[in-house]
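S1.2 Input.
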Amino acid sequence: MNKPIMAKATAVWLVDNTTLSFRQIAEFCGLHELEVQGIADGDVATGVKGFDPITNNQLEQAEIDKGEADPAYTLKLKFNPAALGEEKRRGPRYTPLSKRQDRPNAILWLVKFHPELTDGQIAKLVGTTKPTIQTIRERTHWNIANMQPIDPVALGLCKQSELDAAVQKAAKKKEAEGALMSDDERRKLVSTEQSLEMETEPKIPTAISGLETFTLGGSDDDEKQDDLPDADSLFNLPDNDDDDDEDEDKGGR
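S1.3 Output.
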């Protein structure tokens, strides 16, 4: 159910000017019943001026009359055509002042480790603007030399579930486009929860790659090596008998 604007101030006015129950006021204003009781006791919303929902076109007097006559009746917010679509309208994510200086580092981390994310997704995750993301992508940001990539989840700029959802959306888009991805890209497109559940694949070090088919037993290559000519026949070396004959001739002389 839609809630009135300035809900707490509206609750203050209803407590002061009607005999509605705390439950009715709480349901209408979207508050907890104990919070409404605290308003009546003066412990909550101290100094808040009441906001009249009747004069502000949010509630009709007939609804209040029905609620006062029947404690089980639920007040209905007055229909306001101008308020249509207000709940769907969303602005940029609010980032506290203490964390705004960390946003460039978070953007750098997302650009480096998740290049498949669009500028719109990154802007939604950390609450920034597309021009800022573009300067970091192109490394033309004024402070790029002092920036370090830091996980936005660790900085508290977004939740892990939100990051995983954005990564999964990018993975589905890549799959729909049919683009070929490397192993590193596939690992990046897998959410953290899925990657932790995956089994590790054995890999052969690059230093011994190509030796996985090496065996110590005999093979056809050994038989081929037996058919190779020896060194004497290859270089046409003279026989030892000829050297002995030449030595005898020299001795006879």
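S1.4 Remarks. The mean pLDDT is 76.
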